[in-house]
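User: I'm new to structure prediction. If I give you an amino acid sequence, what do you actually give back? Let's try with this one:
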Amino acid sequence: MPMRLRAAIVGAGNAGNWHANSVKKCPDLCELAAVADLDERRLKRLKKKHPEARFFASYQDVLACPDIDAVHVCLPHHLHARVSIEALEAGKHVLCEKPIATTLEQADAMIETARRTGRTLMIAENQVFLPAHRKIKELLESGAIGEPKLIITYEGGSEVASMSDPCSWKSNIVEGGGGVWMDSGIHRVAVLQYLFGDVVSICGTAERLYSPVETKGDDNCAFSVRFAGGALGAVACSFTVASEWNNSLEIYGTKGTILENHNWERPLRVFSTVPGPDQGRWISPDVEHRVYPGYYPLTFEAEVRHFYECIRHGRQPWFSGEQARRALEVVLMGYEASRTGVTVYRHMK
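Assistant: Good question. You get back a string of structure tokens that encode the predicted 3D arrangement of the chain. For your 349 residues, that looks like this:
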């Protein structure tokens, strides 16, 4: 294996730009070797920032390069499965943006191809790499708030421009696989399953309340979930918020409470009744954090570094294809619940 793995970015939009920057932040592990995009303007933008890379109009040309070790798939959701499978078949490791795919059948095909080819498949779910979420995991496992019983989480911001643009793939029912619930809700589901285990049932609704474009999916959603451990959760997401993007999480346990807000300079507040020096008072633990949009480079760099470390050491990545499939399954269950008006249950294997 070469000292530094050679990376290619397929898709030079916003996500591709974050991935390219993150590769450059990990010079001990990888180097940016190629970028592909159909949009010449996007390629020119990245050429100015990364002149050392080769640039292609076709992703197939990238896959044909024998010196490319890994491909970052940063494309509209409906293309994730096709391009990832082709990259794996070409012998490349794959870091694919979330969601893993738009159907479970596509996700299964990606996972199976990775197994058969012996290549690493990781899904770029950046929020599980947020230091605040890792700290919450540590607090939960230490018993700091006892047994979680109620979890409330939110993600929202403005996507009014893309929701109003019939030419934008974002939130297009076909190309995006849905609206805010697929695009942002899958972040929330991934974090919830990371912290609390599998979601076993869901009810609620996802609706297009704002956008006049009929090809667009939902722009607001609210769901109730139950976890395998018995706790209850509430998840709300919006693309029509008239303020900066934000994510928040409230966790109420039998012995305490954890509050998290991405737009706080110190993102965590903890109250615990467990005996100790901090018993019975609110504290804000030290944790690395940057408010919006600063947590993007923080988390993207962490996930990219993890991906290449897993390749180098032959480890199973977090967030794996299987984990991403479980998050997609819950999102699709939510859409079914919204469509039918009934609670949808997951059949645990």
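You can read the tokens as a compact description of the fold. Here is one thing that stands out. DSSP finds eleven helices and 15 strands in the chain.
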